[in-house]
């Protein structure tokens, strides 16, 4: 396999506009820092409200975490409804679940309204129990969804075989209104749209520090009345307090050579699905452009590594597992793989909050999943554009909310161990 992000290879023939780096010192009404899903959605909300907007991106739009994603559009990311109810209560869980659901709707609305070319696919989600002892999770999630009036269907072994005949699949839960996209292509389409709407975008322009309301890059600076920061791996030069609150989970993705129509029909006889399994370091997969399979996930051995690992060993395990369950693809070659360090918070719910010392600056970080990122960027922008906005998510998204491991204890344990313990707490309860 070639270590290369297949999403970037131009297979969708998108004619993206090249944006030059910022040079010189300028002034703007609003500044968005970061050209991923969150930053792009923040800029769209601002410009549609009549604001003058500048966006700075350190590489290219979608060039970091957003453009490395598996492209799943779902309100679920690292946590299902049952996890949220256990942490909060039914009413609060509904609010938290509703945020990424709205983010997903924002993305889908843009795709349909502006006819984006980003491999948009309707794919019901299939949560698959990989062993009998995991069946409990399926039934608990079903009860949680039932309590929130969310649609789902439990599938037993004979029913699974009709829609996705995996060799070792005995129980699953299917839920509708889920989608898949090429996330990098979506970011490029969003960039083109924003430029047409009048947003000034500068790529190759990493913000090195923020002083007051001025963001400084290597070759220039921007002073703005309002600043929204949507970056991953935040450095202390941007905000020392916020830089201590991001953690990361290392994940891997691989893409196959094209499948034949017969092979694809055998895997998904009743239509495409996006599939997840119930192991802690789960594996997921779904069909993508050109009848290829995208498969990804994380590994307990590499998830918390301080530096990226580029070895294909982990992703080869995903591929071997998939081939074991579907012998028809035993000879299928996987052509590309890549890894990524996904930003997260200690409780896996994003931070979207004001700078405590300067209310004209806001930060979005730790968005696990495209839907959360779209929501957070839009949410922060709405705080600027709609002064009558009564939505306040500080209890759930505030930077100073309580975490299982406090900031004080983290100073003793260290950042890596604190996140590892918090992550286990989130999954084990």
Description of the structure:
The protein is α/β, with parallel strands linked by helices. The protein is built from 13 helices and 20 strands. The strands form three sheets. A nine-stranded mixed beta sheet has the order 1-18-14-17-16-15-6-8-7, sandwiched between helices. Strands 2, 3, 10, 11, 12, 13, 19 and 20 form an eight-stranded mixed beta sheet that branches. A three-stranded antiparallel beta sheet has the order 4-9-5, with no helix packed on it. A hairpin with a 3-residue loop joins strand 16 and strand 17 (292-298). The longest helix is centred in the first third of the chain and has 25 residues, at 90-114. It starts with a strand and ends with a helix.
Global geometry: globular
Q: What do we call the CATH topology of the largest domain?
A: FAD/NAD(P)-binding domain
Number of helical elements: 13
Over the alpha carbons, how many angstroms does the gyration radius reach? Answer: 21 Å
CATH class of the largest domain: Alpha Beta
Helix percent reads 25-40%
Give average pLDDT, whole number.
92
The H-level CATH homologous superfamily of the largest domain, spelled out, is FAD/NAD(P)-binding domain
Report the sheet with the most strands, covering strand number, pairing sense and barrel closure.
Answer: 9 strands, mixed
What is the spatial order of strands in the main beta sheet? 1-18-14-17-16-15-6-8-7
Number of strands: 20
Question: What is the CATH architecture descriptor of the largest domain?
Answer: 3-Layer(bba) Sandwich
Q: Could you give the distance between the termini? A: 38 Å
Unreliable stretches: none
Fraction in beta strands: 25-35%
The tally of domains stands at 2
Oligomer: single chain
């Amino acid at each position: 396999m070639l270590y290369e992000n297949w999403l970037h290879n131009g297979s969708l023939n998108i004619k993206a506009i090249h944006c030059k780096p910022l040079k010189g010192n300028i002034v703007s009404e609003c500044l968005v820092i970061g050209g991923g899903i969150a930053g792009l959605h923040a800029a769209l909300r601002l410009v549609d409200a009549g604001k003058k907007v500048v966006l700075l991106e350190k590489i290219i739009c979608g060039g970091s975490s957003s453009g490395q994603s598996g492209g799943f559009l779902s309100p679920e990311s690292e946590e299902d409804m049952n996890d949220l109810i256990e942490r909060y209560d039914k009413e609060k869980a509904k609010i938290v679940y509703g945020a990424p659901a709205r983010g997903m709707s924002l993305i889908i609305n843009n795709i349909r309204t502006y006819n984006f070319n980003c491999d948009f696919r309707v794919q019901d989600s299939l949560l698959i129990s990989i062993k009998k002892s995991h069946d409990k999770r399926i039934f608990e999630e079903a009860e949680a969804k039932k309590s929130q009036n969310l649609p789902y269907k439990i599938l037993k072994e004979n029913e699974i075989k009709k829609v996705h005949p995996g060799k070792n699949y005995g129980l699953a839960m299917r839920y509708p209104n889920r989608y898949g996209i090429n996330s990098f292509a979506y970011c490029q389409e969003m960039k083109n749209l924003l430029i047409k709407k009048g947003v000034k975008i500068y790529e190759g322009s990493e913000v090195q520090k923020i002083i007051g309301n001025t963001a400084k890059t290597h070759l220039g600076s921007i002073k703005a009345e309002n600043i929204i920061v949507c970056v991953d791996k935040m450095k202390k030069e941007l905000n020392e307090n916020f830089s201590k609150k991001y953690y990361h989970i290392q994940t891997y993705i691989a893409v196959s050579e094209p499948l034949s129509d017969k092979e694809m029909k055998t895997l998904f006889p009743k239509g495409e699905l996006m599939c997840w399994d119930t192991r802690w370091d789960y594996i997921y997969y779904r069909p993508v452009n050109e009848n290829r399979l995208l498969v990804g996930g994380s590994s307990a051995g590499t998830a918390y590594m301080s530096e990226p690992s580029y070895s294909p060993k982990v992703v080869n395990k995903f591929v071997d597992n998939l081939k074991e369950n579907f012998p028809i693809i035993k000879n299928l070659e996987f052509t590309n793989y890549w890894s990524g360090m996904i930003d997260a918070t200690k409780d896996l719910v994003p931070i979207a909050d004001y700078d405590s010392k300067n209310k004209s600056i806001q930060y979005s970080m730790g968005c696990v999943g495209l839907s959360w990122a779209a929501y957070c960027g839009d949410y922060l922008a709405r705080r600027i554009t709609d002064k009558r906005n009564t939505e306040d998510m500080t209890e759930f998204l505030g930077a100073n909310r309580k975490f299982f491991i406090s900031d004080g204890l983290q100073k003793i344990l260290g950042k890596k161990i604190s996140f590892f313990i918090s992550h286990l707490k989130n999954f084990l309860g």
